[in-house]
Amino acid sequence: MDFVVGLPRTHRQHDSIWVIVDRFSKSSHFLPVKVSYLAEDYAKLYIKEIVKLHGASLSIISDRDGQVERTIQTLEDMLRACVINFKGNRDDHLPLIEFSYNNSYHSSISMAPFEALYGRRCQFPVGSFEVGEFSLLGPEVVMRPRRKISPMREVMRFGKKGKLSPRYVGPYEILKRVRKVAYELKLPIELAPVHPVFHISMLKKCIGDPVSILPLEGLGVDENLSYEEALVEILDRQVKKLRNKEVASVKILWRNHLVEGTTWEAEADMKSRYPHVFLLLLA
């Protein structure tokens, strides 16, 4: 478990989100909380929202470096999408965000967390969702939110691809401070479609090191402000056993210009996308 703090207060005075992730199924829960909560308040909320669904946990790891952080990155992206597209109260969006996250395909387990937890795909009354496709059974107004908040995969937006660590472009001049946790930046013409106000969690202080700065020129950013990463090398391989199946993963070294990073990806997915790399390994 971990926390997302420093958020604007909602109508119910919630200013944080309690993120709880199951280590096996990757199933996640996003619970609105307050920084003023005591241990007793968290214990009651844990029984109300977690124990009633999954039973008591054998162990709880707080602030685990890796798995929860990646979930939080996805949660923040989905929250921004909701704020931009739907406005309204954040507390009202969290249940839909949690539903969308747990019913999205995860490469680490080769299925959605819902399927790993319950042994079957989720059946939703307005539609049937599969990896890469869906069958619409409800009105457009119902399906629109799901498409808006679904996590983006295999695309880099503002220097972020899949599970890789955040990337940055810039530096850009700060024009003014907007409230306590946001700043307005002076963006170049190339980023004209982007809203210039950013939360502090999306910004990184420029320390004057040219190596740490990713220039926008020559980056190959398309009209959607996205660009693809380049696979450099396969560093390692592992096989995880999930109930009645085995899932093979490979550790990939990615590179785009001056930035490098590693991530574990499904071997089958990588073979389909980069067959030439595996042919070289066999050779």
From TrEMBL:
Domain Tf2-1-like SH3-like as annotated: residue spans: 153-206
* Species annotation: Solanum verrucosum
GO MF, any single term: nucleic acid binding
| Name of the featured protein | Tf2-1-like SH3-like domain-containing protein
Q: Name one Pfam family in it.
A: SH3_Tf2-1
Tell me which InterPro entries the record gives.
RNaseH-like_sf, RNaseH_sf, SH3_Tf2-1
Q: PANTHER family in the record, alphabetically?
A: CHROMO DOMAIN-CONTAINING PROTEIN
